[in-house]
Amino acid sequence: MGKIKNISLKQITTKFKKPFHVTNSISTEAINIRVFTELESNVIGVGEASPSFRVNGEEINALLSMENFLNTLLNGEDVKSFRKCFLKTSKLLATPSLKAAVEFSIIDALAKELGTTPHIIFGGAETSLETDKTVSIEPLEERVSDTIEIFNEGFRIIKVKVGENLKEDIEAMLRISKETKGAKYIVDANMGYTPKEALTFEREMYRNGVDIAIFEQPVAYFDFDGLKYVRFHSHYPVAADESVKTPMDALRLIQNEAVDFFNIKLMKSGISSALSIVELAKTSNIGLMIGAMAETSIGITQSVHFALGVGGFKYFDLDTIFLLNEEKFEGNFIVEKPFYRIA
Questions:
Q1: Domain boundary, last residue among 117, 140, 169
Q2: Which chain regions cross the lipid bilayer (predicted)?
């Protein structure tokens, strides 16, 4: 009764509460795809894709056009043999967000068939996490005031976007650190700096005692040598984000000793590849962080259940449910800012 009968896709558009600005990109809305995998037992598993042209080269209409292909690929497969399904979905290299959504919908359908949760299917390692909340690139005073508001909400890990104006980024971070003492910061340049600019920023932060937990993707995704250069000259741990999409990326970064952390995003890798990256990281003593694109609460459910099921993640950047203007919270987890718990 666990065989796939039909897969359907539905476009979902959700506005951001305010424009979300990262290096060289501003978003006012999230256009995502819900994936519904129906079994012969009439159980329906649900996943969500958050496509990104900037990171993955994905286009929403191209993904929506794949509905018939997905049915041809997977109809008749038994979700109890989900690894067999993943052997097929792992070929969706050009559409990783759709790959993630389809794979999670299969896991979700299996969990419902068995009367459990995806968290348990993934291993049930942990039950709660502490997420950060993000400050996007904004005018200086707005960045500072937004950070103070986030701190007053109870968040003690704050992600700060930088990478477009080095001088202003330094000034903003020094002000932010002064106004929110006791917080830790994940500083994300989204590939915006050269290696020398990254180290100029890093030295100013260290000289002024700013508590940076992770310096994320300071240089271009293809510049593995630049990442290594920054890592070996930085007082702070350096993380790969855009540089680590596939297990092959992860292996190369490990071999080059280029980073201290991987920021895994299901939307970059899909679940099947993310599982491999996690094991490579754990074997190589690389720290783990999990992030998101622009997922709604349905999409964030995927990352919550994955990260807590697999276990071993130290930092969690799963805050888009606070940034998007969703009509209704639909996540399968409990929110107690800044913590999430498995329902």
A1: 117
A2: none
